[in-house]
Write a structure and sequence with these properties.
By secondary structure, this protein is an alpha/beta fold. The chain has one domain: Ribonuclease Z/Hydroxyacylglutathione hydrolase-like (Metallo-beta-lactamase, Chain A). The strands form three sheets. The protein has a six-stranded mixed sheet with strand order 1-2-3-4-5-6, with helices on one face. It has a six-stranded mixed sheet with strand order 7-8-9-10-13-14. Helix 5 packs antiparallel against helix 6. It is globular and about 55 Å long. It starts with 7 loop residues before the first strand and ends with a helix.
């Protein structure tokens, strides 16, 4: 009886601040959101990996742009959101679907998380405590509302926040320090946030990724998961950002403020 190698996640930087993820066991790999094929092909060659599947969370070019070049080299299934028009997808997914990668003995549950885009999905591997959430939840922040509503995004984030605290959050961008500067502006007395700023700043000074985070860390420090907190609502009111203390109004005001925050 053969013993399978442990499955791990390899970080592949791309563009100026994207992270592409190669889930692999040292032999086979699954790539999540390959916006650029070149660094993925280089990583596959460097680590002697064979691509087994492609997972897509949403249609933006920095998440899907590398798919055609990867398919020229590898004849593999492409999983992606049922509600978005991505031509390369061979299996369209919605919440409740399961993705099984037999080469890696890996299973993902699919979650619908609209807001950043209308059909955005996320992939949750319960056995490994991994969440691949694209641009819905960021370390310290959340995605812009390009196609969805504040209520949709708040609901999507709530769905992710309900996962176990130990869940590792593999988001798609290195936006953490910028997000935490905003978080400090709206959540000034949060001691956990102050400590996180020190921790993440030190990582970046060493040129280390701040991702993955965990759901537990995000619940303690991410204002977009803490928008119901009275201190945050008080801050929004004092800045004249809200006329209502209703939670979705507070969430919408937070996202609007972040859009113009420098």
């Amino acid at each position: 009886m053969s013993i399978k190698n442990p499955v791990k996640v390899l970080t592949v930087p791309a563009f100026s601040d994207n992270y592409l993820w190669l889930v692999n066991d040292g032999v086979h790999a699954v790539v999540v959101d390959p916006g650029d094929a070149a660094p993925i092909l280089a990583a596959l060659d460097q680590h002697h990996l064979s691509l087994a599947a492609i997972l897509l969370t949403h249609h933006h070019a920095d998440h899907v742009g590398g798919v055609p070049a990867l398919l020229e080299r590898f004849d593999v299934p492409v999983f992606g959101p049922a509600k978005e028009a991505i031509p390369a997808i061979t299996r369209r997914l919605a919440e409740g679907d399961q993705v099984t990668i037999p080469e890696l003995d890996l299973e993902f549950a699919v979650l619908d998380v609209p807001g950043h885009t209308a059909g955005h999905i996320a992939y949750y591997a319960a056995r490994q405590d991994w969440l691949f959430c694209g641009d819905t939840l960021f370390a310290g922040g959340c995605g812009r509302l390009f196609e969805g509503t504040p209520a949709q995004m708040a609901d999507s984030l709530g769905k992710l926040a309900a996962l176990p605290d130990r869940t590792q959050v593999y988001c798609a961008h290195e936006y953490t320090l910028s997000n935490l500067r905003f978080a400090q502006a709206v959540d000034e007395t949060n001691a956990a946030l102050k400590q996180r700023v020190l921790t993440e700043t030190a990582k970046r000074a060493r040129d280390e990724p701040t991702v993955p985070s965990t759901i537990g860390v995000e619940k303690a420090t991410n204002p977009f998961l803490r928008y119901r907190d009275p201190a945050i609502i008080d801050k929004l009111a004092s800045e004249g950002k809200i006329s209502s203390r209703e939670p979705i109004a507070a969430f919408a005001a937070l996202r609007e403020w972040k859009n113009s925050f420098r």
